[in-house]
Amino acid sequence: MTAHILLVEDEVKLARFVELELSYEGYKVSIAHDGLTGLTTARESQPDLVILDWMLPGLSGLEICRRLRSTGDQVPIILLTAKDEVSDRVAGLDAGADDYVVKPFSLEELLARVRAHLRRTQEADSDILQFEDLSLNRSTREVHRGTRLIELTAKEFDLLEYLLTNPRQVITRDRILEEVWDYDFMGDSNIIEVYIRYLRLKLEANNEKRLIQTVRGVGYVLRE
What we know:
Low-confidence stretches: none
Order of helices and strands: EHEHEHEHEHEEEEHEHHEE
Strand content: 15-25%
Mean pLDDT: 88
Helix content: 40-55%
Number of helices: 8
């Protein structure tokens, strides 16, 4: 699939130049010339990578980084800036940026960094399951709700992983027992209700909205 890149840059000529080069490389490119439009576009279009100018009308690039990260958005962000002090680099990384390119920059360098971040994202995608603001990393066995790390037991993790691999599908209790517990369970399936309750308590600890829904008489479904 063609990667979608959002470029947020208020210098119109520079934005157009970078847009043409990215398009020539085969990327789909969206442009925003101010901070608020950039933030809105990032949230609505869910790009694969964001190239973000530090100094923007409205919201700064740093503030856009902070707001995206505060909602759990892990899109790779490359900051473009004329600032080259160590303190500025630290501030950009602390705000959630993944990389930093100082103006005036080499276009070849920018393209190389774009390719590197997209490649890392594609490699990691197979290990990460995401639904709304809930994410599960199969390789690290970490679960996040937004930016909050959630500690799960091994069986809680397995159950949540199974639900995340089948989003919006109503899954029967029998199927959950067979797939997650790996045996045919004869008798009361109360064990599932117990683990669903454990998961809900942890996933909704900060009053987040419920994602694991009960379908009475049938089973469970992961949906909004």
